[in-house]
Amino acid sequence: MNSRSPGSQLADTGRGNEAAILNAALAAFGAQGFNGASMREVAKGAGTSLSNLYNYFPSKSHLLAEVLRHVNAELEARLRRAVGEAGDDAASRLREAVRAYVGFVVDEQLAMLVSTAEVRYLRGEDRERLVAARDRTQSIFTEIVEQGAASGEFRTPYPLDAARAILTMISSVATWYRPDGRLSRGQLSEQHARYALALLEGPLPHR
Amino acid sequence: MNSRSPGSQLADTGRGNEAAILNAALAAFGAQGFNGASMREVAKGAGTSLSNLYNYFPSKSHLLAEVLRHVNAELEARLRRAVGEAGDDAASRLREAVRAYVGFVVDEQLAMLVSTAEVRYLRGEDRERLVAARDRTQSIFTEIVEQGAASGEFRTPYPLDAARAILTMISSVATWYRPDGRLSRGQLSEQHARYALALLEGPLPHR
Amino acid sequence: MNSRSPGSQLADTGRGNEAAILNAALAAFGAQGFNGASMREVAKGAGTSLSNLYNYFPSKSHLLAEVLRHVNAELEARLRRAVGEAGDDAASRLREAVRAYVGFVVDEQLAMLVSTAEVRYLRGEDRERLVAARDRTQSIFTEIVEQGAASGEFRTPYPLDAARAILTMISSVATWYRPDGRLSRGQLSEQHARYALALLEGPLPHR
Amino acid sequence: MNSRSPGSQLADTGRGNEAAILNAALAAFGAQGFNGASMREVAKGAGTSLSNLYNYFPSKSHLLAEVLRHVNAELEARLRRAVGEAGDDAASRLREAVRAYVGFVVDEQLAMLVSTAEVRYLRGEDRERLVAARDRTQSIFTEIVEQGAASGEFRTPYPLDAARAILTMISSVATWYRPDGRLSRGQLSEQHARYALALLEGPLPHR
DNA sequence: TATGAATGAGGGTTCATTCAT
DNA sequence: GATGAATGAACCCTCATTCAT
């Protein structure tokens, strides 16, 4: 055992059934997509009645928004923790950020998938709020990359574009990763740390 | 004008309304997602009646399958053409393949988005057939990568994993590319060709 | 038998189920009120499926709007016919108009009730259209009243207000009339013709 | 200030929230109709919780019944007071009754509207009780009319039917009256007093 | 009294699909 | 091929009401 939270579980939030509903929604949206999932399924998954869902979330859209908000919050927390404990140079900070991100993708694969695939169904304010929150999360990476570009550690001509490429590369691991597959969590982290440094044209560790 | 096909248009297929329906389906699935789009929308977009759709495709699922099949076929054709016209070394073949792929993503952004986001709604044989077709398409890249790894041009310790990373990196360009954005089609091609070589730890062109 | 149309039937309108649906809606709205009636009831009453209703009317509100439009159209037609066949002086024109209106209320009691009670549930353009149509219908009365006021046949100091009072008085007959009650159709017509002349302070027939 | 109660307020009844609930119900039923209004709205309007409503009224139907009972009680009280202070002859008693009724309609327009429109949603004993109470209220008018018919003051051939016509005429003022409209409270009273005498074919005041 | 959480029934509406023409 | 009408299932959501506290 380790200290990581169990796969694809949103933290308890105090109110009776809220966490159960959020988790059931995550599972349902993950399995069927936002439009393919029904509130009845969510209710069944959460062990409550359909109508009670609406005592917690005013609409299916809002429920999706809350799911995505929680997922991003957890990701951001993990990233900040990891970067906070890293060294000072951009290369090691990047390495830790990548490891934490890959770890999140592996631990919370379903959350990551839903997070990527279902944002598009958010509209209006909910969407804007989430986009803003994600920008804050991604800025953890872009700041490191800018630091490394400024210090000369990263020599790529396109630091910000490369940063984006790194992020999508890592998050898309969720689309194919299998816990019983050829690559372990650790191997994936090493690989992607190396990919990231390679893309940024930074100092690759010797093989 | 150039010789590229117009954006997000599936080729005519001979049967009266077939192309119109496929294109309308692509547009509808792109705008609303597979489950969010309705056959009525598709019919309206194709300028025909709802029931006439079923003279061409036996079900909504099948319609999706056909859309995805056409998109992959077009992508594969473009890739094979590009690689066929390239040199013999892995680096230049890779460069041309990447350029062609990026070009496709840019030209057929919507097709690429749908292709990525909606495969999950295929089931059964339709799904298997498409997965097989995609594997054939992706093998264009993996063969080049294996060739380069064997020849020593690419020194990455993880050639096949890096190939997958390259593919997802390129296809995800569709999620953010804007025709009027900062990066032109050509710049994107150059960037990604460089990313690919960097990831494979091959010979980077001088800046 | 007489030539009056059967009670509470909206005329056939050509399209297959349309008349049946309108009549079923009239019955349902009459029995339960607009909000108390369900589209399922209407469908059952019309002998069709719930979903088929929406092939004829895009929403429950629209269905109500159409019901009310038809009712008013029928009333207006009857009034114009009656007035057209009357003499030239205001008193006899009024008498015929009142008789026709009372006749309509008695023949189409349910239609009249729904017409009065459920307008309030119309919103937006539907409401405005109906209000305009009703104004046109009521102007049949107000014009007669103005004619009689100008000619000196009606001596009331408030001709237009009295006209309104007459109209509400007649239409509210629908709230208590019973076909098997003490007052026959003919008696009601006579009474209300006399009420109208009395209210307008015109020439009362001798008793 | 005068001695009339404020518009559309049901009197306090002693129990904590009862008056607030009755008034909120009156407002909600007036705005949306009985079936269109929800107990949640009523609770919100009364400033209490949804479930607390059921400590005062056992059901929505009962709540409606109580609202209507209060409205009728207030109307009856006003009418009896007015008639009690009038002279002895039928014409002046009628005049005072009409004035009081018109005054009530104007002062308590919403209450009158609800009273007229929503009775139909009462069933069973609640309905019977209300009908009986209304009959008692209306008998104030019918008794005056019978007195005047007997004494020869009113010469109409249909005294009781005319009485009913008068009542509906007055109560329907609520459907169009606007406080800022052309007709003042006083003018309306005068008009309707005259209408009533005209309908009954009694002695009209000189103009 | 007063509350918040809970629920089963039912609301209007849309869906993919079928079928007679 | 092409259509318009039709349908049953399912959708999201709201309802009046209950109950433990």
Description:
Chains A, B, C, D: It holds the Pfam family TetR_N. Chains A, B, C, D: Residues 15-75 form the HTH tetR-type domain. The structure is a homotetramer of 207-residue chains. Chain A is mostly helical and 207 residues long. Chain A has a domain at 67-200: Tetracycline Repressor, domain 2 (Orthogonal Bundle). The first copy, chain A, is 68% helix and 0% strand. Chain A is built from nine helices and no strands. The longest helix of chain A is centred in the middle third of the chain and has 28 residues, at 124-151. At the A-B interface, helix 8 and helix 9 of A face helix 8 and helix 9 of B. Chain B binds a DNA duplex (21 and 21 nucleotides) through residues 15-17, 38-40, 48-52, 54-56, 59-60.
Feature tags:
Tetracycline Repressor, domain 2; mainly alpha; homotetramer; DNA-binding; 0% strand
